[in-house]
Design brief:
single chain; about 350 residues; alpha+beta; Endonuclease III, domain 1; Nucleoside Triphosphate Pyrophosphohydrolase; 2 domains; 8-stranded mixed β-sheet; 8 strands; binds iron/sulfur cluster
């Protein structure tokens, strides 16, 4: 049996029953691919289901507001995926009359769709023989073929792409691609791969040379950027009602168009928790009232960044004008916010009421 036949036969018997495996609808496959990037299946599946229920087709997604899309995406991280998803839905409506493009170059041209996603959509939905090469595939093929160079190098990546292209099944490219990814995820895992029962143990170079633990090789890890963000949570009483000030992030950063609180950011911890009211005066354009409460650090780890958030609560007991968005406290959950803010609100928002 060829590698391709073995993979397809294994896939038939062992693939997981996932909601997007019952369709070739390009909208649904696209949605699943974007949601599952850098996301575990268990975490991403409920998001996929929420998206499909809320916006069953590309037209409905295009008609949503970006804020609604970001809100439903909240908690998944990498928000540029959500912004691109929404923008691409609009492009498909305007330029392709609502019909998902069916050629690789046209799919690849869409915003937020790289080689990998274009190959996945093209092969699964339109039977186009383009191989997908994600982390699972890189690991599986580099072990089977004994590729010892770092998979972070473009040249190694190209070599593995070429191997995938050589072995892709032209009649079932979608199943072949999914089989490779599934095999990497379930059997040829990063740690403790199932070599003993593996259908490829006879030909696998890594297994037969006892180098499974060394392949795939990686470059040294990129350094992590630490960000120390001090948030000022400002509430205000107007009569019997309570309001809170939100800051809409409009700059080009990972949280573009999400909401948080007025903040000061540092690249080192030299300030620690020692900020005082005066440090925030410029943010509010008026003297900052005394802190009512200071939270311990909230830590959130992203791939290349580690966020250290600290929250300071102040309250105005009469109306005040500040250069931020004033919203009723009970409506705060309608706004899309970064994970760090969501965590803080989970623990503290009731106390602010
Ligand atoms: S023998 Fe081990 S390393 Fe080789 S393909 Fe199978 S699971 Fe992966």
């Amino acid at each position: 049996m060829t590698i391709s036949e073995q993979l397809l036969s294994w896939y038939k018997k062992n693939s997981r029953d996932l909601p997007w495996r019952h369709t070739k609808n390009p909208y649904l496959i696209w949605l699943s691919e974007i949601i599952m990037q850098q996301t575990r299946i268990e975490q991403g599946t409920p998001y996929y289901e929420k998206f499909v229920t809320t916006w069953p087709g590309v037209k409905e997604l295009a008609e949503a507001t970006e804020e609604e899309v970001l809100k439903l995406w909240q908690g998944l991280g990498y928000y540029s995926r959500a912004r691109n998803l929404h923008e691409t839905a609009r492009i498909i409506m305007q330029e392709y009359d609502g019909k998902f493009p069916a050629t690789y170059p046209n799919i690849r041209k869409l915003k937020g769709i790289g080689d990998y996603t274009a190959a996945a959509i093209g092969s699964i939905c339109f039977n186009l023989p383009y191989p997908v090469v994600d982390g699972n595939v890189l690991r599986f093929l580099s072990r089977v073929f004994g590729i010892r160079e770092s998979i972070d190098l473009a040249v190694t990546n190209g070599k593995i792409q070429a191997l995938a292209l050589e072995h892709i099944d032209h009649n079932q490219p979608g199943d072949f691609n999914q089989a490779m990814m599934e095999f990497g995820a379930l059997v040829c895992k990063p740690a403790n791969p199932g070599c003993v029962d593996c259908v490829f143990s006879g030909i696998c170079v890594a297994f037969n040379s006892n180098t499974v633990g060394e392949i795939p090789a990686r470059n040294a890890k990129a350094t992590i950027r630490h960000r120390y963000i001090h948030y000022l949570v400002v509430t205000v009483s107007v009569g019997k009602d309570k309001f809170i000030f939100l800051n809409k992030r409009t700059g080009r950063d990972i949280w573009k168009n999400l909401y948080d609180f007025p903040s000061l950011e540092f690249s080192s911890d030299n300030k620690g928790s020692s900020l005082n009211e005066d440090d925030f005066n410029n943010l509010l354009c008026c003297p900052t009232p005394k802190f009512q409460q200071v939270s311990g650090p909230y830590i959130h780890q992203l791939t290349h960044q580690k966020l250290h958030g600290r929250f300071y609560h102040v309250h105005f007991d009469k109306p005040v004008e500040l250069p931020y968005l004033l919203v009723p406290l009970h409506e705060i959950h309608q706004y899309p916010v970064p994970r760090l803010i969501d965590h803080y609100m989970l623990h503290h928002i009731l106390m602010l009421k």
